[in-house]
Write a structure and sequence with these properties.
Elements lengths: L6 H9 L18 H14 L16 H19 L5 E4 L5 H10 L8 E7 L4 H7 L31 H4 L7 E5 L1 H15 L5 H5 E3 L13 E5 H9 L5 E3 L12 H5 L10 H6 L6
Parallel strand pairs: 1-2, 1-6, 2-3
């Protein structure tokens, strides 16, 4: 796994008996990228007669099993819990499996139509890919290009390449919203302060578009949170927006929450402060 990820994630795997190799962030074309490294290690295990069993490479970014799991599981669950009555679904994209699978299931079934909106962190090019057909972020303009492009405190969502899973649903995504690190951090504090919900960075991003009603399956609301709140303001009262809270804040203590500050340390946050935070590059 990438060495810039919160240590809680690798610590949990170690406690469960796994061997964990943290590797420096790299481009997907680099043989040392964590995906390529995982593929190599799985192959080496299979070819080593002294190792029991065989290696298995999950290939979560490209395998159809990813989006199909959300098509057969998450999508139907949302449809059942909402009674098929919703106006929009908001989610970030890491592998792209969630937003694609859910969109492919819900869109043909919701009467009267619905919108699908991508919540994308700063540094990711997926927003511009959806809106303009070009994989580009403002941080890539000449004179500012960084070696590792998704330069965000948010983990788990945002890419500068189109995966097979994302492509499976890209044509069903109606809009995309940029979420800054500052907005995600502010939304995380807002959710603790106002609702007692302690989430990770991806969830905070989702909430930007509209806090009306949530399908809480895992726990990942921060990234989607900012996006969902914005969408709710655009649609107005009486609409139902669904997002996912898929990552607990306990997995982000050493990185995201170290920057967000003490849990519940703020008591007077205004929603307008959350939505306007760090919007210089939007």
């Amino acid at each position: 796994m990438p060495s810039d990820q919160a240590t809680e994630k690798s610590d949990l795997l170690l406690k469960l008996g796994a061997e964990v190799e943290r590797v420096p962030p790299a481009s997907i074309v680099d043989i040392n990228h964590f995906v390529n490294k995982a593929r190599t290690l799985a192959n080496q295990h299979s070819l080593n007669p002294s190792q029991p069993g065989r290696g298995f490479f999950a290939d979560q970014f490209e395998t159809d099993a990813n989006w199909l799991a959300h098509y057969s599981g998450t999508g139907p669950e949302i449809y059942t819990q909402t009674g098929g009555r919703l106006d929009a679904f908001v989610a970030g994209a890491g592998t792209g499996g969630t937003i694609s699978g859910v969109a492919r299931f819900l869109k043909p079934r919701v009467e009267g139509g619905m919108g699908v909106v991508l919540a994308d962190p700063q540094g990711s090019g997926l927003r511009n890919k959806v809106k303009y057909g070009v994989m580009f972020d403002v941080r890539e303009r000449e004179g500012t290009r960084r070696r590792h492009q998704v330069d965000s405190i948010v983990e788990g969502v945002g890419l500068n390449r189109v995966t097979r899973n994302f492509e499976k649903g890209r044509g069903l995504i109606d809009d995309a919203v940029r979420v800054t690190d500052e907005q995600a951090l502010a939304m995380a504090q807002w959710l603790v302060e106002k609702d007692g919900i302690f989430v990770g960075s991806s969830s905070a991003v989702n909430c930007k578009l509209g806090i009306i009603e949530f399908a809480i399956d895992y726990l990942l609301i921060l990234l989607a949170g900012v996006a969902a709140t914005k969408l709710a303001q655009q649609l107005g009262p009486g609409h139902r927006i669904v997002t996912l809270l898929c990552d607990s804040g306990t997995r982000h203590l050493s990185k995201f929450w170290a920057k967000a500050g003490t849990v519940g340390s703020k008591t007077d946050t205004k929603l307008s402060d959350v939505l306007e935070a760090g919007t210089r590059d939007e």
